Amino acid sequence: MKKKAVFLTLLFSLTALCACNGGSSGKKGSEDDFSAVVGITQDLDSLDPHKAVAAGTDEVLFNVFEGLVKPSADGTLVPAVAKDYTIAPDGMSYTFPLRENVKFHNGKVVTADDVVYSIKRCAGLLDDPDPEVVVESALSVISAVEKVGEDTVVIRLSEPNTELLGFLTCFIIPEDYTEQESAPVGTGPFQFVSYTPLTSFVVERFEDYYGEKPYLEKVTFKICASNDAAFMELLAGSIDIFPYLTDEQASQLPDDYDLEVGASNLVQAMFLNNKFEPFTDIRVRQALCYAVDKEELLNIVSGGRGHIIGSNMFPNFGVYYDETLENYYSYQPEKAKELLADAGYNENNPLSFVLKVPSNYDFHVATAQVLVEQYRKLGVNAEIQLIEWSAWLSDVYKGRDYEATIVGLDSALAPSDVLKRYMSTAKNNFVNYENPQFDELFTKALASIKESEKVTLYKEIQQLLTRDAASVYLQDGAKLVAVNKRFTNYLFYPVYVQDMAALRPAE
pTM of the entire structure? Predict the structure, then answer.
């Protein structure tokens, strides 16, 4: 994706910023060392899985919690707490016979009542809902969650929806347990041990797990203040796995680490606040799209790895992904200048805006720096403002108080999930995009039970976002992961997770 840039030479200047201590040493491990340390660069925003917002939290909690189904590395949804499932031909109900003798980490056996409670909680259907729970809007189609006998749960819908399975990965928790925010309890292959804010999240193997037991006895997620600090920890041997390498760091890995490369499965874009002047003007938005040399961007930020995208979907969505949009806005700086001039912007009245970027993601910071330089050639003044992740969530994502931002958006394994935020009524429509045609197409696609029709409609939706230049879509970046050679079988998923149960010892 990228050639090396001068600004990336700062990567190794920070040695004392990692807000963590303790843990096993990657370099000094032995055959009897059944633990691993994973470096992460953002703190968890909640230990209660139904209150977490950040994808970085979900990628860690994936090891502790499971839903009725869960994603596999090949992109399929496989039974988890449920042993099987059936979707009604009309798309109006889902039936889940539960797996026998699945235990929570507190020793309690999972019941249908726990499942009913968990689904209702995520869907906002409890009689006394917790306002801090993040209600999954896709579950609003649920009209009832019913226990049938002692071992079956039926979810009934108010309208047809054949994509709901991708959202029923929502985690199952005990109905009568009240300490999720301090001592989380799930059904996953690892159970909670401890959490120290800004320092670490520690889990250990759950010996009563119903499935294949993890090889690792213990995993410590070390929370580091920056990408640079985490890499310094890796160089010192105190981190075994680091999943957010920059291209520069990847070229400097010690000999006792392997470099694993996969897709991020994120939509990275310069997201624009469509209600901010002058981004209300489609000519300005289109100009910013034509002004980006995406090939140069990929070369600079990740050594040419990654995949250029042209709309709000990434390639691993297979038949739903419209690859024809990748070059819709080819690099045409002169056309960009013409559009800006037509909108009233020139050297005497330059376009200026502030680009808020979460400081803990070096990949997005590096991308922002490239774009600022490319825009400067056109006389556009983009000013980078680095903000902490918690501030990004509160101010940009929730508060919509920004002009432009660069971030990567993840998705559940449902094409509707990656697109639904553009609905005019969506609570997470932080780009403030409004188009009645989009709303109509999306509603129709979601309700369709014909796969061929869904494919056609979702491609039309992507084309609409691209033509409207709703944002400046950039890439599905390469995920560069450092893995200590003591371990094998690091798996890449089509969703944002770190699967520690899959790791195995190197022979």
Answer: 0.81
